[in-house]
Amino acid sequence: MKVDSVVSEPIKGQKPGTSGLRKKTRQFMERGFLENFVQSIFSATGGAKGKSYVVGGDGRFFNKQAIQIIIKMAAANGAAKLIIGQDGLLATPAASHLIRLNKTDGGLILSASHNPGGIDQDFGIKFNTPNGGPSAQRITDAIYNFTKTISQYFIVNADDIDLSKIGITHLGNMKIEIVDPVSDYKDLMETLFDFDKIKALFASGFSMQFDAMHAVTGPYAKAILEDCLGAPKGTVINGIPLPDFGNGHPDPNPVWAKPLVDFLMSEEGPDFGAASDGDGDRNMILGKGIYITPSDSLAVLAANIHLAKGYTKGISGIARSMPTSGASDRVAKALGIECYETPTGWKFFGNLLDAGKVGICGEESAGTGSDHVREKDGLWAVLLWLNILAVRKQSVAEIMQEHWSVFGRNYYSRHDYENLDTATANSLINALIEKIANLKGQEFCGLKVIAADDFSYNDPVDNSLSSNQGIRIFFEGEARVVLRLSGTGTQGATLRVYLEQYTSQDGDHSLDPQIALKAVIDATNALVKIEHYTSRKFPDVTT
Ligand code: G1P
Ligand code: ZN
After folding, report:
1. Per the residue annotation, which of 8, 113, 365, 370 is the catalytic one?
2. What is the mean pLDDT of residues 114-143?
3. What residues have a C-beta under 5 A from ligand 2, the ion?
4. Is the pTM of this model over 0.85?
5. Which of 39, 159, 420, 503 lies most in the core, judged by the most C-beta atoms within 10 Å?
6. Tens-digit pLDDT profile for residues 343-386
7. CATH number for the domain formed by residue range(s) 2-179
8. What angle, rounded to 10 degrees, do the helices at 294-304 and 327-335 form?
9. Bridge-partner residues for 498, per DSSP?
């Protein structure tokens, strides 16, 4: 087997973000681009010699070709073993589980998560470490620095490997194990949840629709919900993973999963609705006539997690990303456990989970998970909801109403301004940072600022400091706005504006969030002057 050492030019400006390297698919397909990054992953982490890795992706366009390149490069770099999902498929949480289960030296996950797929859409790659979680900053920095100085990469000259056959094969000295992407993950779920109770729930006529959005969770949801838990065939819709996600946008939110939301809001809708994203780590939860915001979902799951068999001892703490609403903080307080506020991005939860400080984590962007893996996990959240519904024997709406009557309601919404000119977006944020120190005491549209800062996080486990993680402005009357620029977009800049207004236990919990948040929205517009900077009167996406 011939190893080619190919001269490689450094590629400029390819800094991996919170979720690895994400770029346009065509850029990834340029000769040397993916290769540069894969070589940098191996070389910047001490070389691949003798190591084992999990490899898989969400099935988007270029997934299989990218895996063939990775296989040949891993062999050329002396890797001992690769574990690959059949047909190149692995949901991100399932890949995390396989890394941990097989104690590999990490994994290469191919996905651009909820971004659309296709030759003119997005592709991505990230490296997860042996704990199963996304690389910490110092590792992504090391990989990035390597991409800037790389002069060659190694690849064997060999035929493609057949990814469709489960079993063991070899490329030179490297062992390749093609595995069923679902079975180990399903076994893990069975240890965490009361499958018997969920089976009984479905047997009693409880109805559900799961929209897999033609992304990776289709086979997982069918195997678990339909084949194992007895949900009727057809419960899972759009269940076949497609390279372009059926020309859709595999982001499970009320905008991109609107047909599911409309169905749940209709008379004939089922009792429960859920969806997951491109790579299976995000979730959306709906009940008949009700959409549950991810922040509320985290709070409800934290308050009820002890009802599931894997969590009967309760949890040590709760972590949420800073822009996520404070609903889960109230649950932590009631349970007498710690709550942590971390910067945006799942990687910040890893240390807390590894140290046993928290048992559940969540983000407002539809990510929820526990210490069973080191990624957020869409189907896990859906199964936990099902487990809670099976035990409490109430509807989703009843559970949510009851929750608000105990804890109060944190009205919440995120407004996104997409594809902005990067310089404009930066100047908006910089102008705000300059103002921060003087905001306290000022009034905007009748709302007085009581505090404002540029969020920084001191990791309680490794003491690392992450600064400039978003601007927080707190108003009188338990209202808050957070502003930050997205780190995952591939086109221009995206400004995210996170709005929150708390209403106490005996307040009105039945308002439309945009109405409940009107005062904060007006105050934000007056303070930040979004229209002045962006020339946009309204956000592009409201969730
Ligand atoms: C977005 C979400 C963030 C999530 C990340 C990866 O990042 O806001 O919560 O961790 O995707 O799924 P952003 O584009 O805001 O940087
Ligand atoms: Zn995702």
Report:
1. 113
2. 93
3. 113, 277, 279, 281-282
4. yes
5. 39
6. 998 889 999 999 999 999 999 999 999 999 999 999 999 999 99
7. 3.40.120.10
8. 10
9. 414, 482
